[in-house]
Amino acid sequence: MQQHYVLTIWDLFTMSGSDVCGGEAVIAIMDGDQEVDRVTISGKCQSPSGYRRSYTGKPGLNCLASTSEQSA
User: pLDDT digit string (tens) for 49-66?
Assistant: First the structure.
């Protein structure tokens, strides 16, 4: 059995001086204490509604923001 999840990211950007630049978020998909997958989202999102990406996996998964870095 599979479950559909929606990952929503808000404020995905970095600042370089006064310039707004793209950023990167790495999201760890967790089954209890075990990481089962990673999703990387790169770009720039300043929308109030955020950026949504779908994910399909087994029921009961959770996610953790693993890292956030500036994209070149």
Answer: 999 999 999 999 999 987
pTM, two decimal places: 0.79
Structure tokens at 60: 């009961």
Cβ(43)–Cβ(11) below 8 Å: no
**Domain ranges, residue 20:** 3-58
Joined together, the tokens standing for residue 51 give 């950026």
Helical residues (DSSP H) of 1-72, grouped into ranges:
none
Q: Are 16 and 72 in contact (CB under 8 A)?
A: no
Q: Could you give the number of structural domains in the chain?
A: 1
**Does 65 map to a domain?**
no
Residue 24 lies in a domain: yes
